[in-house]
Amino acid sequence: MEKKRLFKIMNRAERDLIINYAEEIRSRYAVTVIKNPEKSLAMIKMREPVKQGLFYIGEVIITDAVVSIGNAKGRAAAIGDDYDKTLSMAIIDAACNCGCFTHEEELYALEKEQQKQIEKENTLFMKTKVDFHSMDSEA
Amino acid sequence: MAYVAVSGGEEAIEESIKLLKYYRSGTNKDVSLEAIEKKLSLLVDKVMSEAGLYSPMYAALALKQCEGSTEEAVFLLRAYRSTLKRSCYTNVVNTEDMRIVRRISAAFKDIPGGQILGATYDYTHRLMNFNIGNEKSRRLYKKMKEKISRQRETEVKKFGRVSDLLKNEGLIDKYEEDNSKPDDVTENLLEFPASRSAKLQTLSRADTGYISGLAYSVLRGFGQVHPTVGELRTGYVEIEVPYSDDSDESIYIGEILITEAESLNQSEDKDQLKLSSGYGAVFGRNENKAIAMSVLDYELEKGGDYPPDDEEFVLMHGDSIEMNGFISHLKLPHYVTFQSKLDAVRKTRNENQEQENNNEDQAQ
After folding, report:
1. How confident is the model at residue A139, as a pLDDT?
2. Number of Cβ within a 10 Å radius of residue B141
3. Strands, E, within chain A: which ranges?
4. Which of chain A's ends, N or C, has fewer CB atoms near its CB within 10 Å?
């Protein structure tokens, strides 16, 4: 699975689900933590539309971690300070990289459910779309 | 008169700090961080924007710690930020990909994708709703969750920019993408003339009231009289960081809410055959700040003789920490400098008195 997609699903998932997957991997494979989860800053780079240049709008607090299963490294980063979930995401990433992650189909199903929720919420916003009616002009 | 260094007040200061807790202890009702984050989100957004740090939960904590003072909360967040290392820069965020929750144009009635009002107080009666005083949060939360679950799904679409329509008609200048590294005012002091990236970063993290006031002065005649909001949009943008140095892949780290505005103005070229736009983008839902920023962006690009056209004036006086810090320092002990001023006044008065006495003696 493409990394961006994998991390989007994991990021949006309930933390307990991700932690459970990681614990299952840990029970079957030796996981080495290369970098413990740690808070840091990521500077957000934006494109502005007027001159098409770049600028920094500000920073965001992230947590990142790196692990390995055998020779396969796994890494993860996420906005916020959820150490356990970030470490678990790194473990799942390592499992994906060594071909031993067995819940991929479940993640695809979860992705569909996540998208559905976003689209349901989106309906509320789209209901506020203005429907203009032209007023009759006086003859 | 000799200067004498004095010390003291340590115990009084300690007791004063303890007294702050007394002010937060006024009721046995608690305010959870989650409640501040979710129910006072516009305040949280303002603090994050002025701190230049996107972290709703920490902004909520900062607000709780300092009794809701915006400038203190900004100070706390900035101070905390300074304890963390910067581990990476995100991939470039293009707001064209924004998941829109509000998007309007004051320039055109019909815009591709339509005008999405989203959640706005614009059309509310500003009447106090006393029922909210006894609102049951649990019931409200459940009701809204159920409401969302009953909705059909609507595909999330991207909305092109209104300004792109004008660019395609040749009414606004088009520019090639400029990927040069932006300046970072958190790492290097502002230099003048400031780069466009430094200006936008400085305005985005400026005090909301400050730039709103300056933009208002522009509207009142101290600058371009009345820009038109070409587009105002609020929505979620996805944030990604590189997966690793030797990979083209990226990690999705989450999404953040931002508001951006483009204001349109008649161009300064002599024939006035084109329009120019100003840009504003801020963390959270804070549209007046985004609009004000777009107004000032245009004023600074255009230049002129009014204060809002002056880079140094605009960019050096709007940082919440700097301006509140400097004003705040006025209340700290200035015993020596004030004594000096007092001595000067007394000396002058004595000299004047002596002069008057001499004049009177001579007259007699």
Report:
1. 46
2. 11
3. 31-47, 54-69, 72-79
4. C
Q: In B, which residues are within 8 Å of A47 by CB distance? A: 92-95, 177
List the 207-246 stretch of B: residues with Cβ below 8 A of A.
238-241, 243-244
Residue among A44, A124, A128 whose CB faces B239 most closely: A44
- What is the per-residue pLDDT for B9? 85
Task: State which residue of chain A sits closest to B249, comparing Cα positions.
Answer: A3
Question: Could you tell me how many helices (H) and strands (E) chain A has, helices first?
Answer: 4, 3
pLDDT tens column, A68-109:
999 999 999 999 999 999 999 999 999 999 999 999 999 999
Residues in B 136-155 with any Cβ partner in A closer than 8 A: 147-149, 151-155
Question: What six digits make up the tokens of B55?
Answer: 């972290």
ipTM (interface pTM): 0.95
Q: The tokens of A47 are what?
A: 């494109």
Residues of B in contact with A76 (CB under 8 A): 251
Contact A115, B93 (CB under 8 A): no
**Nearest CB neighbour to B239, from listed A79, A124, A129:** A79
Q: What is the mean pLDDT of chain B?
A: 93
For the cut 70, the answer to whether the pLDDT of residue B4 exceeds it is no
Distances (CA, A) of A123 to A110, A119, B161, B198, B259: 20, 6, 21, 38, 20
The long-range contacts involving B118-126, CB below 8 angstroms and separated by at least 24 positions, are: B118/A125, B118/A128, B118/B234, B119/A128, B119/B285
Domain edges within chain A: 3-128
pLDDT at B271: 67
Q: Would the CB atoms of A50 and B278 count as touching at under 8 Å?
A: yes
- Kindly list the domain boundaries of chain B, sorted by start residue: 9-81, 95-324
Task: Note which residues in 80-109 of chain A have CB less than 8 A from chain B.
Answer: 80-81
How many angstroms separate the CA of residue B346 from the nearest CA in chain A? 51
Query: Read out DSSP for A6-20?
Result: HHHHHHHS-HHHHHH
Q: Is the pLDDT of residue B289 over 70?
A: yes
User: Are A60 and B154 a contacting pair at CB < 8 A?
Assistant: no
Q: Does the CB of B159 have a partner CB in chain A at under 8 Å?
A: no
Cβ contacts of residue B332 below 8 Å, gap of 6+? none
Residues B8-61: pLDDT tens digits?
A: 789 999 999 999 999 999 899 999 999 999 999 999 999 999 999 999 999 999
Residue from the list B85, B114, B180 with its beta carbon closest to the beta carbon of A130: B114
Tell me, what's the pLDDT at A131? Answer: 87
pTM of the model: 0.93
Closest B-chain CA to A49: B279
Q: How many CA atoms lie within 13 A of A115 on its CB side?
A: 12
User: Averaged over B88-107, what is the pLDDT?
Assistant: 96
